[in-house]
Amino acid sequence: MLCLLVNINLPSSHQRKTIDDFSVLSCNTNSSPIIRFCYAWGSKSCVAAAKKKDHVALIYGRRREAIRHLARNCSSKLCDEEEGSLQRRAAFVEVYSVLKSELLNDLTFEWTHDSRLWVHQMLDYNVPGGKLLRGLTVIECYKSLKEGEDDVFDASVLGCVLGWCIEWFRAGLLVLEDFMVDSHTRRGQACWFRVPKVGTIAVNDRIIHLTYVATILRKHFKRKPFYDDLLDLFNEVEFRTHSGQMLDLITTIGGQKDLSNYSLDLYRRIALYKTSYYSCYLPVACALLLAGENLEKHVNVKDVLLDMGIYFQVVDDYQDCYGDPKKTGKVMS
What we know:
Oligomer: single chain
Strand content: 5-15%
Distance between the termini: 52 Å
Number of helices: 11
Radius of gyration: 21 Å
Shape: globular
Structural class: alpha+beta
Order of helices and strands: EEEHEHHHHHEEHHHHH
Largest sheet: 4 strands, antiparallel
C-alpha cells in the first residue's frame, strides 16, 4: 500500500503504535532538511492537505513489505555478475537509507525535532562515507560461500544489513578516535568533533553509533539461529578493538613522541587488536555465520585474516606519516 505521510502534531498514545508499521524510504520537504515527525494517514482529504503543505514523504506500506521490496531490487543488483562495482555499491547504499529511516522512526525514544535532526546529520556525516570495503566484503564473501545455491538472492540483503552494522561500528570508532588523538580531517572533511556545535558531544554520538548496531542486529536477526553467535562476535571484536586502542593511547600519553616506548612486538599487538579484528576478520566472520558455518571450524581463516589486518595497519600508518593529505583524506595529529 502506497501512502503519504502528513506533517502534523504527535498522535495520541493509543494511535502511536501504528506508526511503527511504516518505514520512510524518501521524502520531499522544502522547509526542513530531515523528515519531521509524521503520522500515516490514508484518506484523500489528508493527502490533499499534505500536498498543500509540501511536507510529503513517500513510503511503502508496512515495514516488512518495504524491506521485501528493497530486497528484490538490491539483491538482483548485488548478485548479478554483470553489474559493475559502482552499481553494487549504489544498491548497498540503498539499504543504509532504509536502516537509517527505521532508526529515526523508532518509537522507543520520544524524538524532538532537534534530536532527530541531530542524529540524521550525524549518521549521514559519519557512516556512509569512505570506500565501504568492510561492508561490501560481507556480501562478496557470502556470495562466494553460497555460489550456485538458491538462497543467495534472498540472503544478500541480510548481508547488506550486516555490512552496514560493521560500517556503523567503524564510524563510531573513528568519531571517538579522532576526538581522542585530536585529528583534523577524516575522509576529506573535518572530523566530526570539529564540526561547529559538536565538540565533546561527539563522545555521546559514538555511543549512539554503537547502540544502533545492537538495535539493527536485534531487529533483523533476533529470530535467526546464529543470532547469539553474532552478538558474541560483535562483543568480542568490540572488546579487542578498544583494548588495542588503549595500548595505542597509553603508549603516547600526553602526546609524547618517544620512540623508546615502542617495540616491534608492541606495534604488532596494537595493529592486531586495534585494526585486524574489525577490519579483516569481522566481515568474513559475519559472512560465515550468515552461510550457516561454525566459526570454530575456521580458525586458520581467522589467523590469515588477522595477519592481513596487521599489514593493512602498517600501510595505513605509513600513509599517515608520509602520504599526501589531499590523496589520503586525513590530516593526523
